[in-house]
């Protein structure tokens, strides 16, 4: 498996990976609509690619205990992208006492999970952010996505800020799912 910077020519493939990520996150309570956000995520990915803030994992010697995983053509797209991480340096209106790097999205196709791909992508993003001078790296994870929470805990991430949400839906005042 090779991790490298994404190219503009890979934007369509990156959008497909993000749509797959967003669709998966719906099972953990995400409000993002995967298909409806193709245009905004394409624009965000293009900005991040231009700023060297997207790394991709390409199919290659991905192995799990010496056995190649995800080797069929249907498991990887034509270019062999099996995962990506999108990151940047946090920018905001407030002065802070620390410069924080932000991991915005990290996704590995299911056939390639538990083979070290996510670990390699996360480490490469952390290295790039450290080289840029950040003091800490932060990310968001859905509360109901226990697998992601375990993954990030294994890599040293701890709760820093907790977001709470209250549903305002009722029988007479609700939104359609579509």
Describe this structure in words.
- This is GNAT family acetyltransferase.
- GO terms for molecular function: acyltransferase activity, transferring groups other than amino-acyl groups.
- Keywords: Acyltransferase, Transferase.
- Residues 1-173 form the N-acetyltransferase domain.
- The protein contains four helices and seven strands; from the N terminus they run E-H-H-E-E-E-E-E-H-E-H.
- It is globular and about 50 Å long.
- By secondary structure, it is of the alpha+beta class.
- The protein starts with a strand and ends in a 24-residue tail after the last helix.
- The strands form two sheets. The chain has a five-stranded mixed beta sheet, sandwiched between helices. Strands 3-4 form a two-stranded antiparallel ribbon.
- Helices cover 30% and strands 20% of the residues.
- It has one domain (2-154): Gcn5-related N-acetyltransferase (GNAT) (Aminopeptidase).
What fraction, in percent, of the residue positions are helical? 25-40%
Give the ordered list of helices and strands: EHHEEEEEHEH
CATH architecture: 3-Layer(aba) Sandwich
CATH topology (level 3) name? Aminopeptidase
What's the quick description here?
With 178 residues, the protein is an alpha+beta fold.
């Amino acid at each position: 498996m090779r991790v490298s910077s994404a190219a503009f020519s890979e934007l369509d493939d990156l959008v497909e990976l993000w749509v797959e990520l967003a669709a998966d996150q719906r099972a953990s309570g995400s409000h993002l609509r995967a298909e409806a956000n193709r245009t905004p995520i394409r624009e965000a990915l293009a900005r991040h690619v231009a700023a060297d803030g997207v790394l991709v994992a390409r199919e290659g010697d991905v192995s799990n205990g010496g056995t190649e995983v995800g080797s069929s053509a249907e498991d990887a797209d034509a270019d062999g992208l099996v995962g990506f991480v999108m990151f940047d340096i946090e920018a905001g209106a407030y002065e802070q006492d620390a410069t924080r790097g932000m991991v915005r999205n990290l996704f590995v196709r299911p056939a390639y999970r538990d083979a070290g791909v996510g670990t390699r992508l996360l480490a490469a993003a952390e290295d790039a952010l450290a080289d840029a001078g950040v003091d800490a790296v932060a990310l968001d994870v859905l509360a109901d996505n226990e697998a992601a929470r375990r993954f990030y805990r294994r890599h040293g991430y701890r709760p820093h800020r907790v977001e709470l949400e209250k549903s305002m839906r009722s029988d007479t005042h609700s939104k359609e799912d579509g």
